[in-house]
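Workshop exercise sheet. Pairs work together: one partner reads the sequence aloud, the other fills in the structure field after running the prediction. Swap roles for the next sheet.
Pair: D.N. / O.F.
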Amino acid sequence: MNISYARRRVGAVLAAAALPLSLAAVAPQAWAADAGAPFGPGCASLPKQGPGSPSAMAGQPVATAAAGNPELSTLVAALKQAGLVDTLDKAKDITVFAPTNAAFAKIPKAQLDKVLADKAALTKILTYHVVGSTVDQADLADGSFKTLEGGTLTTGGSGDSYKVNGTAAIVCGDVATSNATVHVVDTVLMPK
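Structure field:
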């Protein structure tokens, strides 16, 4: 399996994992009022309009919205591979810590291929990135959140600089979808 194909599959799987993680069907106006504008250094790379833009993502469920963002294609392939797209898209009021393509690229190819071939392991990793409640910037300074996988994620930071589990930086946070809040991270989070 070549890396490009594996990344597309991982991205597809992650998009499928758009589990019904209660992505509150939030309209773009409600998103701006409730969660505020996206924050972080990576937000500048979001398209200003069309697929992958904040306004387009706000009108779609999380996995579908992620599929429109070229920086999340590996995650979407992984969600599809794990069969999580429908689950995430039907969830309500969830939060997804979404690894970028570059985050997946940090994983050695042999290890990534092994995880992609093991649906149970892939599902465990992907659901570790999802919290069953809304977590926005105000909650990130010193937070601890139970994931759908059953583990716990911790967050810390201030201003526009936050880390998850002390290692993964949130490069663009508070991106709203119709049923979720998305925090784009630069590292794939691994459950214990």
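Discussion prompt: Residues 3-185 form a domain with the FAS1 domain fold (CATH 2.30.180.10). What would you look at next?
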